[in-house]
Amino acid sequence: MTTGSVLAFDLLAAIVAAAGWLGAGATAVAGRRRAATAVGAAALAATLARAATTILLARAGWWFAAEKVVIAGPLLLAAVLVAGPRLLRPAPVPFLFAGYALTAGLLVTVLHGYPVSAGAGLLAVAGVAGATAVTWRFLGSGPVPRTAVVVAVAALVAGTGAAATAGAVPGVPHAHQHRDVLPVGEPTQRFTLTAGTAVVPAGDRDVAAWAFNGQVPGPQLTATAGDVLEVTLRNRDIGRGVTLHWHGYDVPNSQDGVPGVTQDVVLPGQEFVYRFRADRAGTYWYHTHAASDVGVRMGLYGVLVIHPKPVIGVDVTVPVHTLAGVPLPEPVVQPVAAGDPVRLRLINTDDTTHRYALAGAPFRVAAIDGSDLRGPAPLSETAVLIPAGGRYDLAFAAPGTPVALYVDGRMAWSSGPVSAATGGWPVLDPLTYGTAEPLPWSRYDREFTLVLDRGVDLRGLLPRYAHTVNGAADPDIPSQVVRPGEIVELRIVNRSLVVHPWHLHGHHVLVLSRDGRPATGSPLWLDSFDVRPGEVWEVAFRADNPGMWANHCHNLPHADAGMTLHLIYA
Amino acid sequence: MRKAFVIVTGMLLAVFALQFVFAAVGAFTRPGGDGSYTLHSITGMAVIPGLCLLTIVCAVLARAPGRVLAMTVLPLGLVVLQALIAMLARAFTDASGASTTAGLVVGGLHAVNAIIVVHVVVGVLRAAQELAAPAPTVQVAQR
Question: Which residue range or ranges hold the Plastocyanin-like domain (chain A) (predicted)?
């Protein structure tokens, strides 16, 4: 059982336990003693199940269990001690007290689980004591116990105070422009991208889109290693503004295209010129980083391929995207001569993971995220999962028979008629693929832990249920500060129930381990990787690209809902 | 205040009916996506909980008996449960984000719970109406 499924079952047990005790209380109020005993017994079982999931999660990592042990734990214990002995002699107040205690523990996990805060704990206690006092007033015998009222009021006052002070933590100022003057040389490749609203064909109909040069995806930018690229970005009529971010290509900071951080947003009628040297061959893509959630979804993206000097064989790019519910690109049939080397550059420009399967020929995963793998073995009947923003290059020699690429079961590219059922194929784990190499570093100068979760964010104008990092949401997440030349270890922990594709700008990170198990395959230098629920990834990078860099979840609605922070060089 | 209790509970029931309509709007929007359920989400996460709280306040001010008050609190709890079920259903997806059998079973509970909440709110509305129209037994007791 994975930690991710334990997280889901923990939530399920907490819901059933809370609802069960409240239901048992209501049944007792109605005077149905036998039914109350039965419902209470079920609630007790669910309560013990939550205790078990809490222990499992604590063993998987303190990040997953902290608030369940420190806040929900004592509440759960009190519930069992108060309601348990009354199981055979049902009484409304003890059962309802247990219901309030379990509900409070559940709400702490869901609303503000990590890090454990005194405010959340005290407010939970205040809620339980207050609700119990009110219940006693209506259902109990005798006057409301003073202690319950005193505890409720004291915890409410102290909890509100603690929550308010926690909110006053100052963040690092975000308005920052890093200026670097680049001696990149004369451009050898020039492109112009004009962003504007357009109507483009998708599937069998026309849809409204935002497009570069009137097409979705935007024009493919192709260069050869060593070229100096000059890309002029113009905005015709995108009111929210545009920029260009070179996803996966580690450009100097001033060319990174993050509005408000590395440049000003390009508004209608304005333009911005990007210039950088393309030295590292590989598969990359570009997209707007202004209002990126809606902008990329509406179509402001395209492919950037940098070829090594000699271009050999057949080179196909498959940028997968969902435009207005229609999966792109349109299926392509492209005959290939037997024996030709083929390179399929698979790009996921969506917000969620896609599953790719190549049928009809053994293949190698030659590169991931633009970096070649070491000693990739031939694979067949194996699917690959590409995270949001990620790229895999599949290489194979064309056989005499047709081959086909399926994306989530839909044919996206083929060299002839093929029928294959790829749904049951096993999935490649890149951490065990290829041959290992000793780590380039023996020490780490700095260590950061990012705990990904959901939580209530009250610091903005309107309260929101944000996607959080270490309990805070953008713009209140403290920036991570590094010095040039340092080796930085990044630990990313996902205690939420959804996948977070992590993306650090300006650097490629080397994967060290996942869930405590070291990566044993080829060195993996990634810029986009899926941290699934319950997973702990340890990655490292050398701080060799000064500036201020976005470090965020590439499920762009999540980034928009708070899951963005910054890495800055001191 | 008893009139207000009836009116607010009636409004709550009406919004619940609308909420079913919004769910259908989400289901039939083409092309479908996370955005199709915006109306449903906003109503479910903001309007309905707000009205639930208002109903509880009205019930307290109308001096509703304990049993009616408990019944009035119940919809709020079930609405919180409703949001948690939706969240949990989304958690049970496979690696590429597609739904799984477990997720659909949990998701189905979202509909079952919705029917239960409406049932409870109808009960609250009846109780509120009884409270507003003085029952004959009360008059007997007053004599």
Answer: 199-309, 471-568
Question: CA-CA distance, A136 to A130, in Å (whole number)?
Answer: 10
Shortest CA distance to A468 belongs to which of A566, A538, A558? A558
Is A13 found in the same domain as A160? yes
The nearest CA of chain A is from the CA of B140 a distance in Å of 25
- Beta-ladder partners of A317: A345
Instruction: Specify if A556 maps to a domain.
Output: yes
Count CA within 13 A, CB hemisphere, residue B131.
26
Asked, for residue A324, whether it belongs to a domain, the answer is yes
**Predicted confidence (pLDDT) per residue in A481-503, tens digit:** 999 999 999 999 999 999 999 99
Asked if A294 reaches chain B (Cβ–Cβ under 8 Å), the answer is: no
A259 with A331, same domain? no
Considering CB atoms only, which of B30, B69, B95 is closest to A138? B69
Interchain pair B97, A353: CB under 8 A = yes
pTM of the model: 0.89
A321 and A423 housed in the same domain: yes
Which CATH number do you get for residue A363?
2.60.40.420
Of A118, A138, A166, the domain-final residue: A166
Q: Is A211 helix (H, G, I), strand (E, B) or coil?
A: strand
Domain residue ranges of chain B, discontinuous segments joined by + = 2-142
Mean pLDDT of chain B: 85
Rounded Cα–Cα distance for residues A551 and A507 (Å):
10
A81 and A228 co-located in one domain: no
**Are residues A278 and A402 both part of a single domain?**
no
Asked if A7 reaches chain B (Cβ–Cβ under 8 Å), the answer is yes
Q: What is the pLDDT of residue A360?
A: 93
From B95's Cα to the closest Cα of chain A, the distance in A is 7
Range of the domain at A208: 181-309
Looking at A279, A309, A339, the residue that finishes a domain is A309
Q: What CA–CA distance (Å, rounded) separates B55 from A441? A: 63
Do A409 and A330 share a structural domain?
yes
Mutation pick from B84, B88, B92, B109 vs chain A, by most beta carbons of A within 10 Å, is B84
Q: Is residue A390 in some structural domain?
A: yes
Distance CA B143, CA B139 (A): 6
Asked if A19 lies within 8 A of B77 by C-beta distance, the reply is yes
Answer whether A188's CB lies under 8 Å from A228's CB.
yes
Same domain, residue pair A266 and A321: no
Asked if residue A242 belongs to a domain, the reply is yes
Task: Mutation target for A interface from B96, B100, B110, B116: give the one with most A CBs within 10 A.
Answer: B96
How many separate domains does chain A show?
Answer: 4
Residue A326, CB half-sphere, CA atoms under 13 Å: how many? Answer: 19
Nearest to A408 among B90, B96, B106 (CB): B96
Cross-chain residue pair A138–B31, CB shorter than 8 Å: no
CA distance A346 to A355: 11
Q: Which residues in chain B are closer than 8 Å to A8, comparing Cβ atoms?
A: 88, 91-92
Residues A92 and A207 in one domain: no
Of the given ranges (A129-143, A358-372, A439-453), which has the lowest mean pLDDT? A129-143
Cβ distance A497 to B96 less than 8 Å, yes or no, reads no
Nearest CA in chain B to A16: B81
Extract the tokens encoding A463: 């309260």
Chain A residues with CB inside 8 Å of B98's CB? 408
What percent of chain B is predicted at pLDDT more than 70? 88
Distance from CA of A7 to the nearest CA of B (A): 9
Contact A15, B81 (CB under 8 A): yes
**CB contact B28 to A (< 8 Å):** no
Q: What is the pLDDT of residues A140-186, one digit of tens each?
A: 778 888 888 899 999 999 988 888 776 555 555 555 555 555 567 88
Distance (Å, rounded) from C-alpha B74 to C-alpha A150? 26
